Amino acid sequence: MSTELIVVLLVAPLVGFLINGLFGKWLKGNEKLSGWIGALAVLVSLVCSIIAFTSLNSGAAPLDETLYEWITGESFAFNIGFRVDALTAVMLLVITGVGFLIHVYSIGYMHGDEGYTRYFAYLNLFVFAMLILVLGNNYLMMFVGWEGVGLCSYLLIGFWYDKQSATDAGKKAFIVNRIGDFGFLLGMFTLFAAFGTLDFGTIFDAAEADNFQKVFGASTLVIATLLLFVGAIGKSAQIPLYVWLPDAMEGPTPVSALIHAATMVTAGVYMIARSAVLYEIAHTGQVVAWIGVLTAFFAATIALTQNDIKRILAYSTVSQLGYMFVGVGVGAYASGVFHLVTHAFFKGLMFLTAGSVMHAMANELDMRKMGGLKSKMPITHWTFLVGALAIAGFPFLSGFWSKDEILHSAWGSSPIIYGIGLVTAFLTAFYMFRLIFVTFYGESRVESNVASHLHESPPVMWVPLAILAIPSALIGLLLGWGGHDSWFHHFTKNVFPEAHHDASGNVILFMVISSVIGLAGIAFAWTRYSKRAPSDEPTGAIQRLLANKYYVDEIYNTLIVQPIKNGSHFLLWKLVDNGVIDGIVNGVAALIRFIGGLLRRLQTGLVQAYIISMVLGIVLFLAYYLFFT
Amino acid sequence: MLLSIVIFLPLLGVIAIALLRGFGATAVKGVALVIGLLTFVISLGLYTGFNADTATFQQVTLKPWIPGLGTSYHIGIDGISLWLVLLTTFLTPICILAAWNSIEKGLSGFMMSLLALETGMLGVFCSLDLFLFFVFWESMLIPMYFLIGIWGGERRIYATIKFVLYTMAGSALMLVGILALYFQNDNSFDLTTLSGPFEHSNLLFLAFFIAFAIKVPLFPFHTWLPDAHVEAPTVGSVILAGVLLKMGTYGIVRFCLPLFPDAADKYTPLIVTLAVIGIIYGALVAMVQPDLKKLVAYSSVSHLGFVVLGLFSKSSAGIQGSVLQMVNHGLSTGALFLLVGMIYERRHSRMIVDFGGLSKRMPIFAVFFMIVTLSSIGLPGLNGFVGEYMILLGSFVQGAFSKVHVVFATAGVILAAVYMLWMFQRVMFGTLDKTNEGLPDLNAREVVVLLPILLFIVWIGVYPKTFLSKIEKSVEVVVTKVQAEPSMGHLKNQGTQDSRFALRETQRTQHEKIEKEAQ
């Protein structure tokens, strides 16, 4: 593995972006070419990633190299540099692997769209930024990628920019993420103040040094890790900053699959896994785990009552990200990242199948208007089923392995977290199969004009689905067999601190409990939705609360957005700026004018008046000299 | 000599244009553009001839001017003024080209004002004599007064008088300050021979600082700015935001900090608080503006709050960041005003509600606008991020004020995204209004106007070393001067640095131990 390889890996999507971005006008007539340029760029990165991975897997040393000096001075140095170790390699494979398939799928999905070349330019730019995020060997470079993916997310959510809801959603995503970035920035400053650098290697070594606590006190790392976690909360859509992700579904569906399920939203998990050393020392993992498990549960309850396919998947993503945070929070870093990998495949798959359904249904997303699609779209149905079984924790499918590892580790940390996680697993299985039964089974409720051309998607779309279905089903088994002794744990063991959690208890028992819970959820969904669609109106207070997503958006709007807007308009602008400050400024001017007006009266032009004032003056002077000196 | 040519060449252009009466508009514009470009090309010689290894002034000319008064024609540049000089010579020809078709009456007067203004601005950045500095400082007002007062909008007279009086109020104070320094400096105005401590340094500091704070403008001295911007013609706004505001921050780093370090220490908490208020306040007020130009004007209040914060962090990173951010703001905000001007020329409106969906009709414009917006938001990879990041980092790590200031300043980064993206959405996205359907996309001239700015926006973002390496040494001098007098904060920093050093030591021994064991 050489630096050149990594440079090629990184730059290929950038080249793709530049070609499609700059010459898009000329490529417009030939959209296939434009799409394949985009896909090819990612393929190059994929090949490079595989080479890097195999060389690491065969025992090569991790790469840690500085490419060039970016922002430097005598007292600070921020460089552009790479770090490629097992964790990076895993992320690289996910990004470029899933990324490549989604590029290919998009060639078919985006067919005929006006902004075809623009779409592929953005998508390539996203891959480039995501690669920067995981390749950087310091926090600042991670931040560069972090902001870069945020930008692409913004651009792609609002891709259909004449749609108000789409651009609203894009803006919301960017701003909510910025709130997280605020924490990330302050976290970086705190780290720099303590360590004088932001390089991973130096910071981790120094933090582990014995005298660190003596010099800086324990609080420095506690503050720094919590601030970094604020960044993760924003990017990975956790409570209380998750609100942007469901809205992000306004973007094209392949974007939802790539950015808002498989890769970008997992950046927060990556960040904490990367900073594992710091979280271990600071003991702030508990906070991470609690936020994670509460988000997992909270989002799952919302997913129970939604009827929009993509929104269900979005809340499911929020919920699954919560599981990942539980994993990295309780110190099971490898398990958290393992779930990140399996989730990337099965959730990516489910989004793409949802896209396939939309494609056939003229962009319909409300599953109450579907039903019985199984016979019309068999491949879509079977691939979705694989994804749903995987996420529900069906025995031996991917989610089963990774989720079980997390729950098992959580038990060692806190039985309450384990309990909430288990309940969430039940809810997950339930809402996923509610979606399946309502969409693909039962009687068709498809409107007649749509029903007539209901069809399976073209090969360029279903082939990536079929390919993705294989790892979605099997990757857990392949990488995760053996639990904490699995291949995945061995591969990543050098990047994470020694597991300290108590992995006691009967592994098989945990697996059985998880499986039973998952199957129970499926069965419960079967009893309720195999025959009938959800009713149009939510019944009862709790259902209404869930269907309205706990009114969180409304609460934020009333308590935060509107007061800031109105306060800025009426209080700051009208009152302070125009009223007080300009009032004083203009008041001073008016006062001077007024005094001038008074003094003007002295200039009467009458000689007598001047003589009188002259005489008066002389008298005053004389009086002064006579009496006071 | 080279520097004198750069400063006075535009004035030569003024004379040339005056002589061209009757030769038609194209001749006037052509001469102005040629002079502008020539000045820029010659000024590049300042860059190539610049020695980054020294902090002493370069390209120095020292000639007696009015010996009886103790004033001389003393000019020179260091790493701080170099970039402001180049920014000025860079933006002027761009402005001339931008105004190509938009000035209908009094074209030659307009071009003459613009070029005279350039000489004034360059003089301010290069003067090493306080008297000379003051002359240039005041002389700049006159062409600017004309630019707004003659070629401005409806309320131009109110705006231009407000602008001039505000500045004059400040400069009156500064004049007193300059005279006080003169008498304490053996009746000489020479900046390079000035060395403190001065008597009444607190008052002197304030006299200078208020003059500069008005120019910056620092909250609450900012209310002249929105009016001036809204009424000024596009080019006036570009120069105003791009260069004139930088005179304030330049004055702070050139005079206030190095000459009166004690007073600067004393007033730091107050000034930094005002700067942070400006960051948040400017952003919030910008957010609710219905007028594009006002929005950008208030955003300047916010952005320059960052610059002042960085300067008073008295740290190397913070001040370097501030100097770079002066250039960044000149480029980004200059470009924003150009862009707003371009749609104003098409639609004769600056009201946000009149737009929407422009991306459809004007895709090239959309790309430029997007990139400049992102630069203003401070997206990594573009120029704004580098400056803001250095400012915040320097303030957080070394600033002799509470971290709460930096926390609030960092929150300003969130607000920047709010007001810029909301504006962008309302102007560029959504459905296209019927009245806007006929708007043409950018033409070649407009692309030529914007492209060079974009080049530097990306360049500074990706490889700021080109710029920072030249700034560094000169900033170090300022830093040593402000930190010469030990203050509480300074001592505290020293402590951290020592302990950090100690930590590195133990790390090194540990590494050695580990290596030994490995062997």
Please, could you describe this protein's structure?
The complex is a heterodimer of chains A (629) and B (519). Chain A has 629 residues and is an all-alpha fold. Helix content of chain A is 74%, strand content 3%. Chain A has helices at residues 3-22, 24-27, 31-57, 86-109, 116-135, 139-157, 164-195, 200-208, 212-216, 219-235, 244-247, 253-262, 267-274, 276-282, 285-303, 309-329, 333-360, 373-376, 378-392, 398-413, 415-440, 448-451, 459-480, 487-492, 507-529, 541-547, 552-600, 607-628, and strands at 63-72, 77-84. Chain A has a two-stranded antiparallel ribbon with strand order 1-2. The radius of gyration of chain A is 31 Å and the shape is globular. With 519 residues, chain B is mainly alpha-helical. Among the domains of chain B are: 287-471, no CATH class; 484-519, no CATH class. Helices cover 75% and strands 3% of the residues of chain B. Chain B has helices spanning 2-19, 25-48, 79-98, 107-126, 130-139, 141-151, 156-184, 201-215, 224-231, 234-259, 261-287, 292-312, 316-347, 358-361, 363-377, 383-398, 403-428, 444-462, 465-482, 488-518, and strands spanning 58-66, 71-77. The N and C termini of chain B lie far apart (63 Å). The chains are: A mainly alpha (629), B mainly alpha (519). At the A-B interface, β1, α6, α7, α9 and α27 of A face α7, α11, α13, α16 and α17 of B.
